[in-house]
Amino acid sequence: MEATKRYWDDVKEGDPLPEVRVHALTRTDFVRYAGASGDFNPIHHDQTFAEASGNPTVFAMGMLNASILSRVVTRFAGRPGVRRYKVRFATRAWPGDDVICTGRVTRKFEESGEKRVEGELVAVNQKGETLISGSFVAALPARAADGS
Amino acid sequence: MPVDKSYIGKTGRPVVMHVERGKIREFATAIKEDDPIYFDEAYASKEAGGIMPPLTFLQTVSHWDDGRGRVVVPFDLKRVLHGEQEYEFLAPIHVGDVLTVVSRIADVYEKPGKRGGSMSFAVTETTYTNQRGEVVVRAKHVTIETGQVVKD
Questions:
Q1: Residue range B126-143, pLDDT digits in tens
Q2: Could you tell me the CA-to-CA distances from B86 to A36, A67, B8, B26 in Å, in that order?
Q3: Residue among A37, A53, A83 whose CB faces B149 most closely
Q4: A97, A108, B22, B108: most buried, per Cβ within 10 A?
């Protein structure tokens, strides 16, 4: 899905960001992300290792969840406009968990000659537990500069 | 085990990574993305000057690192968690770019854990520089070693 063309002038503090939902993560998702990212820590794909480390089973890489959450930002601002993305990991995601990502605009400002917005983000699982909290900064085009 | 502050300032060997179209496609699929800016050359050229990688794609530098790119603070793998990750995007990245990646341990410290014992933290700063000598991204990674085996 393409990012919506969004203008700085139309955005208000408090505006909600587009929601991103992933339903029921699977062990195959973890394997696919391991291959894609290069994170071969066996705690994410090897049941025997996961159990020997005191876990019931394998769990998702934090960066997999962070990558899903990042789609909220790029859907809102378009990939080229993103200037900062920051996450703090709270709770792990397990096979079968949903990843539900939301956020809102917290600030409009100008910096480095660009019109920018700042926002806060959160990813929760199906029980409402916080998986990740985060924030971002993105530059948006202004209507006048666009000629519209 | 008390943290070893002598790791502060240690820098890994530079790693050279090539930003490739197929890898971007694979990574975007793995994060369940369908934005054409990662898949469609014609669309991406119009919108962004070419296909760009997803925000977290630079993690794939792992595939280019023979093990000497990252300084590994000796935490117990069974108690290690990724605490925080931050990216500053300073210049665009496109398919075809060649990035030189350098990581440095910026800080190592301890804090008392919520459940007793102490937690150790290592902060790694990574700089990504393109073939034109422009710094395209600065990243910060906080690794945590918990006081005991991780339980949510």
A1: 999 999 999 999 999 999
A2: 20, 12, 19, 22
A3: A53
A4: A97
Tell me the whole-structure pTM to 2 decimals.
0.94
In a domain, A1, yes or no: no
Q: What angle do CA A64, B74, B124 make, to 5 degrees?
A: 55
Measure CB to CB from residue A63 to each of B26, B78, B82 and give the nearest one: B82
> Cβ A74–B26 below 8 Å, yes or no?
no
What are the structure tokens assigned to B116, written together?
A: 């007793």
Is the Cβ of A37 closer than 8 Å to some Cβ of chain B? yes
Q: In one letter, which amino acid is B86? A: E
Question: Which residue carries 């703090």 as its tokens?
Answer: A88
- Supply A14's token pair: 């408090």
CATH number at residue A95: 3.10.129.10
What does the domain layout of chain B look like in residue ranges? 5-145
Q: Please, what CATH class does the domain formed by B5-145 belong to?
A: alpha beta
Q: Is there a contact between B150 and B143 (Cβ–Cβ < 8 Å)?
A: no
The percent helix, strand, coil of chain A (3-state, each to 5) is: 30, 30, 40
The domain of A70 spans 8-146
For the segment B70-127, what is each residue's pLDDT rounded down to a tens digit? 998 999 877 888 999 999 999 999 999 999 999 999 999 999 877 778 899 999 999 9
Q: Contact at 8 Å (CB) between B121 and B111? A: yes
- B27–A37 C-beta distance less than 8 A: yes
